[in-house]
Specification:
InterPro entries: GDPD-Related, GP_PDE_dom, PLC-like_Pdiesterase_TIM-brl. With about 300 residues, the protein is α/β, with parallel strands linked by helices. The chain has helices at about 1-25, 45-50, 75-80, 120-130, 145-155, 170-180, 190-200, 220-225, 230-245, 250-255, 270-275, 290-295; strands at about 40-45, 55-60, 70, 100, 110, 135-140, 160-165, 210-215, 260-265, 280-285. Helix content is about 40%, strand content about 15%. The protein is globular and about 80 Å long. The structure holds 2-acetamido-2-deoxy-beta-D-glucopyranose (2 copies).
Length: about 300
């Protein structure tokens, strides 16, 4: 009897404490300092800066002569028509971009390029947009790449304007080790851990090194593929992932701890609305103008 009461009160205490700290995490954790708050994140594209985007998202690779370039693909066939790896060529040898480039998550959408078809260096982006926060995906597990990116970030005095990472936890750990002053993303294994902690009620007690959670909205899969072509089990998994991941109480807890939540890659009003309703900090989009219009129409402004 006594033991039962003890267990019951302990469990109740745990549940209550967890619930309290879920709502008020700063009772236990110092809120992370946020140097910038991005609501409008452009999935590629410098024009978006003129539009007032809060953040650029880009991918980095290393050339043979150890220059950091901005390129999504490690093989350049799709973007340039030349079948070669970025890491096999010196920067000066890299082929220019094709005129017509498929760029979005949705089918059949092309970007007719501008004048300059050169594959940019990370340095060029830093010089062109000295005050725009940049989200850097480290595309290759290469220590030199990580070191060089850190050096550039430091050189251009952008530690406070940068977040970096990869889905691989190994890469994120290396990034954090290389320069812990640059905020990191949750890697994929860490997202799973985060969910485990959240659903067991442990999350409020656990310190987190990451400062950015960037996750897809699983339900958009039905928009990318022809929904009829998804099998029943694929549809179920999508539904389940969506329900597990898109949790307002999770997002609110994280943002109260100073961890920003970005959801990608959303391209229509319905999904923009859902993300902001769920308490996401920001939305990553292929269509900066569309998101800007949506935010203007709905009075979503910098002040939260
Ligand atoms: C990293 O990239 C450089 C340049 O492409 C290359 O020389 C080096 O071998 C790579 N290191 C690893 C560990 O892959
Ligand atoms: C993460 O790194 C792997 C290589 O280790 C790469 O294939 C992948 O595209 C990267 N993902 C992101 C989101 O940068």
């Amino acid at each position: 009897m006594c033991a039962a009461v003890y267990v019951l009160s302990t469990v109740t205490g745990y549940v209550l404490t967890s619930a309290l700290l879920l709502k008020c995490p700063t009772l236990l954790h110092r809120k992370k300092r946020e140097n910038f708050l991005s609501q409008h994140i452009s999935h590629r594209g410098g024009d978006a800066v003129n539009l007032g985007t809060d953040m650029l998202e880009l991918d980095c690779q290393l050339t043979k002569d150890e220059q950091v370039v901005v390129s999504h693909d490690s093989n350049l066939k799709r973007a340039t028509g030349v079948n070669t790896q970025v890491c096999d060529m010196a920067y000066s040898e890299l082929p220019p971009y094709l005129c017509k480039l498929g760029v979005t998550f949705q089918r059949e959408c092309f970007c007719e390029g501008g004048e300059d078809k050169r594959i940019p260096l990370l340095r060029d982006v830093f010089e062109a947009f000295p005050n725009t926060p940049v989200n850097i995906d480290i595309k290759v597990n290469n220590d030199t790449l990580i070191k060089k990116v850190s050096e550039l970030v430091v050189k251009y005095d952008r530690e406070h304007l940068t977040v970096w990472g990869n889905a691989s936890n190994e890469i994120v750990k290396k990034c954090y080790k290389e320069n812990p002053r640059i905020p990191v993303l949750f890697s994929f294994p860490r997202v799973l851990q985060l969910l485990g902690l959240f659903y067991t009620g442990l999350l409020p007690f656990v310190p987190l090194k990451e400062q950015f959670l960037e996750i897809p909205m699983p339900s958009i899969i039905t928009k990318l593929k022809d929904p009829n072509r998804l099998t029943k089990s694929q549809r179920f998994i999508t539904w389940l992932a969506d329900n597990l991941l898109m949790r307002k109480s999770l997002f609110e807890h994280l943002t109260a701890r100073g961890i920003q939540v970005y959801i990608w890659v959303l391209n229509d009003d319905e999904d923009f609305q859902r993300a902001f309703d769920l308490g996401a900090t920001g939305v990553m989009t292929d269509f900066p103008t569309r998101l800007k219009d949506f935010m203007d129409r709905n009075g979503i402004s910098k002040l939260q």
